[in-house]
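Hi all, long-time lurker, first post. I run a small reading group and we've been trying to get comfortable going from sequence to structure in the token notation. Rather than ask abstract questions, I figured I'd post a concrete chain and ask someone more experienced to write out its structure so we can walk through it together at our next meeting. Sequence below, copied exactly:
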Amino acid sequence: MAKKIWNFISSMQFAIILLVILSAACTVGSFVTQGQTYEWYVKQYSERTAALIIALHLDDAFHSWWFVLITVFLCVNLLLCNVIRLPRLIRRTRRFDDPRRMVTEIRNRNGSDPFADGVTDPGRLFEKLHMPKPREGKTEDGKEYLFSRKNRAGLWGAWVCHLGILLLIAGFGFGQMTKKEYTVYGLPGQTKEIGDTGLTLAIDDFRVDLREDDTVSQYTADITVKKGTGSESARISVNHPASMYGMKFYQNSTGWAAKVTITKDGEPFQEAVICAGEFVPVQDKPELVIYLNAFYPDYVLDNGTPRTVSGQINNPAYLYTVYYQGQVLGMNALMEDEDLTIDEYVVRFSEPQNYTLIQIKKDSFTWLALLGGLTTMLGLLLAFYCFPGQVCAVREDDGTWAVLGFCRKGGSIFRENFLKAAGPIEAAAVPEQK
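-- Answer (accepted) --
Happy to help. Here is the structure in token form:
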């Protein structure tokens, strides 16, 4: 029983089953929005579907216990396949250098490999088949033979490819389980802490490049990362991250921020810069909160819905909400030169500017996934472009040579090349492939 289980776990059938399940899991994970709350799923689907999503951990499918378990089983299967096949592959590689099998087949002349008899110049055949210089030897009964082989590494193509897939899955899996992600957003001149890393990120500059049609061409940020007394600086843009202190820094997106000025009884009282989606409580009345919902650089009201007609600051408007003790006091759009009066307080928004949102990732196993990808590519190259071939020629009693060719992959192409190299007269002795 244990042997049957072992054979099944290390079998190709089990690998295919795991790959099908893994593909189905990835498909489900791509359709179900990840990382949301139970209430969010209830609104999108239904209570029963939401409960099923949470119960099966489909809200975080790629970190769920069952996804990790499938990945582990697949890695074990690939590892066992490679370990079990390794001794046999080593023996096959050694036999590939041994001409005895080919000498035996030449004597029997009952194989289906390309064969030519009565060859007067075997050297020409070796040369036309682009074989390395043959080595000379003698059979057990004293007959002279020539033997050459090429592309022995092609025997390892599938094995190397499996090893690469194993490393790729392991690198991705361990990376997903151990990686850390942080998000920092702010304005030029601001310095923010990067989570629990002990690092700080200073935003030195940020700009948004626009095309002629007013669409965004590129976001670019100049940043400085500090650790203790040391620091490193870099320029990052979309699709051009920077690596510092073992982490990757990505320019992710942007948004709008504005300065909020509050006066009290006609005197300057409070000032702050906040991004859209942030709020500022009034200093001497913290239960009174000013929230900046959104900024419209070129504001229009379209059937009661605020929107912007361009990215240029032509008609700026600030959508705000005022809360008092958690209750909404009011919500409206405030133009550039308009004030909002709340009892003795006057609120004004001004100086709109873009903030940058930077994503920071730390994945300790990126190198393993990269190694796995390169190994897989090497295995595919060996498997599909490196055809192991052997040619052996034995001198007959009449002084002519009997020549046998063998190729583990691409046999029909090798056979055709062998027939051409053997020549029209000598190739007449080549039997048809069965």
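A couple of things your group might point at:
Residues 194-359 form one domain.
Residues 425-434 have pLDDT under 50 and may be disordered.
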